[in-house]
Specification:
The structure is a homodimer.
Chain A: H1 8-15, H2 19-26, H3 34-46, H4 53-60, E1 65-70, H5 83-98, E2 102-107, H6 108-111, H7 115-121, E3 127-131, H8 138-145, E4 150-153, E5 164-167, H9 169-182, E6 188-191, H10 197-212, E7 218-220, H11 226-240, E8 246-249, H12 252-264, E9 274-279, H13 282-286, E10 292-296, H14 298-313, E11 321-323, E12 325-328
Parallel strand pairs in A: 1-2, 1-3, 3-4, 4-5, 5-11, 6-7, 6-8, 8-9, 9-10
Antiparallel strand pairs in A: 10-12
Helix pairs in contact in A: 1-2, 2-3, 5-14, 9-10, 11-12
The first copy, chain A, binds a DNA duplex through helix 2 and helix 4.
Chain lengths: 335, 335
DNA sequence: GAACTTTATGCAAACGTTTGCAATTATTTT
DNA sequence: AAAATAATTGCAAACGTTTGCATAAAGTTC
């Protein structure tokens, strides 16, 4: 360990210039001669110097930090373990890093209800990315109303005064259902809770497809977990027997839970029941039969989320944006 | 939005006391009379006050932030999408929050090689939690040598001058293998790369069990991904046919990849091949057949990781610690 | 070569907390 | 009742940057 932590003033003394010059040089300020800049940067590297971000943030009123809030509904069992949400967080992390921003990971437990206060007024972060709309938009709306730079991963069609980036859930739901219909399924279950914004859109897409095929809709409303799906399908089978021949699941985890329940009863997938999920997580490809799914382009979405946040940080306005979505056709719906 | 962001001085003026008193009151300093403390806290809440963390950190030389580094090997495809690692991160987040600490999520891309410098000297964080040892401990050792408060999730038996918390991988490997032997398997494959610290221990546990049963070890060394496992097993089957009747996989994702390859060829699990994974991720329970697995108690581990980091922050020494591990017996190895 | 513009650097004042020490007031001891 | 002690609070100096403004040096124009 170094005897003493170097500060800007020390570096300045070493170089025989003022602290202002060093500060500007390290920030690549064009006021400083290129030659001087290079020299000072090299000196900094050589002496293993690193800026005190606390001081820098205090003075410049900027943190270069973005808070990412994983927004669970309190009523649900969907948790920090949800692979899809975590995948999104991972990709947001990458997208932020590429812009030189850092990621403060948070959740409702830590942040409380007043996000503007907790993150922005306290200078913990410059902006917020919310992953998941949840059922209750109160916190998000309050933060947006307080003028916080904010973007949300969710359903972009939800009317809002803040930008929402997300997949075209309606089209996704319709695509999946049309695909199931095309395989010959007549009685297609929607498996998921339409009360949730994104899932609601998927449900409406499902309804649209069902209606135009003059089929009969049927919803099994469950929590967004594989366990709930497993139980839900099991109970349905016990109560009414095999009364369906297709399932449109609101997520892959839910689909996989349903798949397990079916397989345990030796109901063939896709022959007896065709199945389509949503999200296209890694497991969709690895499950057996592999799971057809609506693929969300989370990587592209993450980049756009960060762009829109950046735009707001620079005082511009940003609109919601729909990300293209596509059906990945695998074994679970092939017949 | 408020007209102006309140600061400590404003609050002090409002209350008719000095800033020192307000500062101490909000930090629950016993120097301040309880009555005054309560009054000031209420006033702060009422006015929606929140401390400027930048200023606070600058002055107090403490951030209350912990950097979490997901430590991938550059050579591997194991990614931010790995559900197990993300689960660990999620639980570390919870454990940190319970101690009032925040989580700065990072990766090698952002942090570079000199972690001490990037995180600690720059006052971005007070300490570091590294998730995953990786194959190359250079960065970790350098940081530890620089005196950085640091804990690692990994293989606790690895000799180190920093605390490593993790499961008893040797016992886990042995348990899994003994279990497979007990089901009657004779030719048990180890599926995974023993060059990786934790997996190496699992491999040695496997070897111990194999040797004491006088069976013959056989390793299929692959990258830690389900895709690699799928390909690896496929290739082996093509090249040599079904030359094994048990697989000890180094992770659940790997096991699930192998499972898919087997199922595609109508090789019965567990009858033809018994299978045990490692990690006990959510999918283990949902796959069909459900996957026997060695369960790592990530929640307990996360709490301990945070405790040990806290201890170091308070200047104490912390040792590596082994977390109990247990076999979860499911269908994939039942016969 | 004087007057002006351009380029490069330095001075010093913030940014908003925390904290050692001093000062004041209340309580106890002699 | 004076002296000593304990309980509260305030003063003012940090913490290490960034940045508006002033200044100095160099280059340009007439």
């Amino acid at each position: 360990m170094n005897n003493k932590q170097l500060k800007l003033a020390d570096l300045a003394k070493l170089a025989g210039v003022s602290t202002s010059t060093v500060s500007r040089a390290l920030n690549d300020n064009p006021l400083i001669k290129q030659e001087t800049r290079d020299k000072l940067k090299q000196l900094a590297k050589q002496h293993n110097f690193s800026l005190n971000t606390a001081a820098s943030r205090l003075r410049s009123q900027k943190t270069n930090v973005v808070a990412v809030i994983i927004n669970f509904d309190s009523g649900t069992e969907q948790s920090i373990n949800d692979p899809f949400l975590l995948k999104v967080v991972g990709e947001i992390n990458l997208a932020l890093n590429k812009q030189g921003l850092e990621l403060l990971l948070s959740n409702s437990f830590m942040a409380g209800d007043d996000w503007a206060n907790y993150f922005i007024n306290s200078r913990r972060a410059d902006g917020i990315i919310v992953v998941g709309q949840g059922k209750d938009p109160t916190n998000i709306e309050a933060a947006a109303a307080a003028g916080v730079p904010l973007v949300v991963w969710g359903d972009p069609k939800t009317p809002s005064n803040y930008p929402i980036v997300g997949s075209d859930n309606f089209v996704g739901g319709r695509l999946a259902t049309e695909h199931l219909l095309a395989t010959g399924a007549k009685n297609i279950l929607f498996l998921g809770d339409p009360g949730h914004a994104e899932i609601g859109e998927r449900y409406r897409g499902y309804l649209a497809a069902i209606n135009s095929a003059k089929a009969i809709p049927h919803v099994v409303s469950i929590d967004i977990t594989s366990g709930a799906a497993y139980q839900g399908i099991n109970q349905l089978l016990v109560a009414k027997g095999l009364c369906f021949d297709g399932i449109m699941a609101c997520s892959d985890m839910v689909a996989l839970g349903a798949m397990k329940a079916l397989k345990e009863r030796y109901i063939s997938i896709p022959n007896d029941v065709a199945l389509v999920g949503f999200d296209d997580i890694a497991m969709a490809d690895i499950s057996h039969p592999s799971l057809s799914s609506i693929k969300q382009n989370t990587q592209q979405a993450s980049v756009i989320l960060v762009e829109k946040l950046l735009a707001q940080l620079q005082g511009h306005f940003a609109e919601s944006q729909v990300i293209e979505i596509e059906l990945v056709n695998r074994q679970s719906s092939k017949r």
